[in-house]
Amino acid sequence: MKLLVDLARPHVGLVTNVGKDHLEFLGTPEGVLEENRKLFDALPREGTAVINLDDPLLKGLARSLPCKTLTYGRVSEAQVRAIDIVSYPAPLRFTLVLGKEKCPVTLHVFGGIQVSNAMAAAAVAHALGVPSKDIVEGLESFKPAAMRMEVHVRPDNAVIVNDAYNANPSSMRASIESFCRSYPDRPRWLVLGDMRELGRIAHQEHEDLGRWIATQPVDRLFLYGRDSRFILQGISTQGFRGVVERYRKKRYLIDALGRSLGASPKPAVLLKASRSLQLEQVSHALLSLSS
Which end of the chain has the least Cβ crowding within 10 Å, N or C? Predict the structure, then answer.
């Protein structure tokens, strides 16, 4: 982080959240926070730190920084807020509160998690003095990057949600929860791979994820990767009533998904794993099989 701030010399800084990522190198979420805080510490006194009040670790920084701060989140004390959120049926809609202004926003993206991203972007723009009209126009014209909640509809009407750019325990839960809320009218399938860079806690975090998935409205689970066996262990302890399958080879996973999609009533399918597993290859294969 020090190298990056020395290069950029920012006047506005944003850390969107502090999750369980890079724990192999930084140890704990508190270690992640310590590293990320270097961005805020590098801001000049007249600079602005944009603080996410929905994140308990970041919230504590709101009154402890020497520079100016601008807060955002769903809590009432945030200076930039999102209220009246409607994630289903599409499109995603909410009211953006910028100080005393209230602006209706329609996002052409998938998943309630994108509301947090929109608030973060709006808060940074607000800190830079961008007019509210331009902020709303920017949000409504946004298109997601590849492999980040990227939605494809096959000719047979099955939905493939490619969120395979990366994964950690925090983003896995956020993505799965958002996915489940967005498709209440379809069978919901998860295609999950390993979460890497977790170090000594990899076994426990994968097992914990499995236990948590068992509490979600998921109908079918496809697993891939060496550590996915621990997800299977976790979910097996909770009496999960859905179907669970695990594959060691990607081609076997693709074959199984292709057969299942052909025989199923048009499910929504979420794909997510760490970058090194290249799970987008599965998404590409499923889309080419339907063409």
Answer: C
